[in-house]
Write a structure and sequence with these properties.
By secondary structure, the chain is α+β, with helices and mostly antiparallel strands. It has helices spanning 2-10, 39-52, 90-106, 111-116, 121-130, and strands at residues 26-35, 65-70, 79-87.
């Protein structure tokens, strides 16, 4: 069951953001299991993942997958897992956000709401320039 849970977490289908993981490399990753889980079994599964996805990790950060086991199970299940990672694929998401901001700022869309709350237009110009 741990093996299936680990596979599901590492697939891009479970991510909160729409980031294609194949477009980047993993810098670090952290797996947290909740429930009655063997630490040996979790370590073995993570070693398999790291071996199979070795080309998807940067080589200059050794031992970049960490795991933990929390003995208290979640309320609605007997076991669960949480996966947190830092990947270079996030760059595309931030580029998309920056281009959307620039397009809105060029049209001065929604700017009046921020000016009404006391922000200056120079702050937006500076933010656009810094991005």
């Amino acid at each position: 069951f741990i093996q299936e849970l680990t596979k599901q977490v590492w697939s891009g289908k479970q991510f909160y953001s729409n980031v294609p993981i194949e477009d980047g490399k993993f810098l670090t990753a952290s797996m947290h299991y909740r429930g009655k889980v063997s630490t040996q079994e979790t370590d073995e599964n993570l070693e398999k993942v790291q071996a199979s996805k070795a080309e998807d990790f940067v080589e200059w950060i050794p031992n970049n997958i960490k795991s933990s086991v929390i003995d208290v199970p979640p309320v609605d299940a007997h076991i669960s897992a949480t996966f947190v990672t830092n990947t270079t694929a996030l760059k595309a998401m931030f580029q998309r956000l920056a281009s959307q901001f620039s397009a809105l700022y060029k049209r001065k869309a929604f700017l009046h709401w921020y000016k009404g709350e006391g922000m200056d237009e120079m702050e937006f110009q500076e933010a656009d320039k810094n991005v």
